Amino acid sequence: MSIYEWADNEYNIFKTNTGFTQKLASKTYELELDEYRKYEERLALIHEFQDICIHVFEDALDGGVNNKVLEWLINETPESLGIEYHKKLDRGLYKRPVFFRTDELNFGKIAEIQCPGSLWGELELCYKYLFELGIDIPISDPGHNFSLQLKEYIGEMPIIHHLLDAASAQPGMRYFISNIRKWNKFYGMDKDISAYNCNFVRGHSVFGLCADNYFKERVISKKIQYDLPPIILFDQKATLVLPFWSKTRDYFNDDIRNMIAYSVPVLKEGIEMEDGSIVSIKDFSARPRSSRNYYLKYAGADIALNWGSKGVYRLSNMNSKKCYEILMKCAEESLNGKIWLIQKEIIRDDIVEYYERDGRKICKTLRGKYSAFYGPYSLIGVLAMHRHHNKVHGQKETVISLGICKV
């Protein structure tokens, strides 16, 4: 059996026929000791960032900060889940995400944090693939690690209701579920488990959480924990600008700023640069392409744009005229709540060896993206992804490998 026949069989565990659609590296992706330790040690700093974001959001709702901040964080959220919803919601539900994944274009510089995010199944498959090959792996099974942390967090056997309606990569999430069922119970999969038995809800969209048939009862009962909290704050990229934006910068410390890729709003009054200056959109667009090494990203709550690589543009690929036109359009849209940010581009290319479906072993230099997966208490695993493109997000030609510490 070839490795891809094995991978297809793994993914078809629920009698589906989606198969595994990406490519597998021929070996682990080795990180230097200091790089891997940084992943392990920075969870407390990520938690601090998330806690401060909640503090900023609460201050904005309570009128304690510039109203532009509240407009930025609520943006296009439908009125039914907007300001009044958040003011009435029990503040006990204003919690940081429990399990989440980072996206990084180089080690130590976070471009995004997603809860729960996709690719959990791909992380698990990479671990099992190496195990099948008999390669010694210096980390524990990601699914088992996830389950141990979840049980400790809840304080009892986890009974999970996983809402997959908004998951962008459902085959991988179903695969992850299938691998952790031995340590957890699932509503809709295990006998004698009802929606009222559940003590943990995983969802890929706040809108999906709030549209769940049992949402109101669960919120009132206060007997259930949410992976993604039912607030709009962490279901968008809007929080990424808070450590850098002049209106919120003072809430955060330099350690947090050094962890996140520089990100600021695109506004009619201009763009705040890293040196503190404000540059007009016209002047920014007139810069040489080499000085416009930023991504333009949709930052708001519209689920048609805020997942995967949708709503993402590389400004250095555009001539000045095109750059000016798209930034002006985004700045004008921000006046009506459709918010955009620019984020400093950070590039890392690696020489990667991987298998094609026909069994050939290929060696190429590819663009990298790296994701660290966290639970409430520690790092669960690192996944390296490589592709011959500037957008690396699990597309079919993406090469995936398990990141481990070099020994």
At a glance:
The protein is α/β, with parallel strands linked by helices.
What does the model show?
The chain has a domain at 20-42 and 89-236 and 348-405. Strands 1, 2, 3, 4, 15, 16, 17 and 18 form an 8-stranded mixed β-sheet that branches. The two termini are 31 Å apart. The chain has 407 residues and is of the alpha/beta class. The mean pLDDT is 93. Strand 15 and strand 16 form a beta hairpin. It has 13 helices and 18 strands. The longest helix is centred in the first third of the chain and has 19 residues, at 43-61.
Task: For the record, give the distance between the C-alpha atoms at the N and C termini, rounded to a whole number.
Answer: 31 Å
Number of helices: 13
Gyration radius from CA atoms, angstroms:
21 Å
Content-based structural category: alpha/beta
- Low-pLDDT runs: none
Looking at the structure, what is the overall shape?
A: globular
Instruction: State the oligomer.
Output: single chain
DSSP strand tally: 18
Largest sheet: 8 strands, mixed
Proportion of residues in β-strands: 15-25%
- Mean pLDDT, rounded to whole units? 93
**Helical content class:** 25-40%
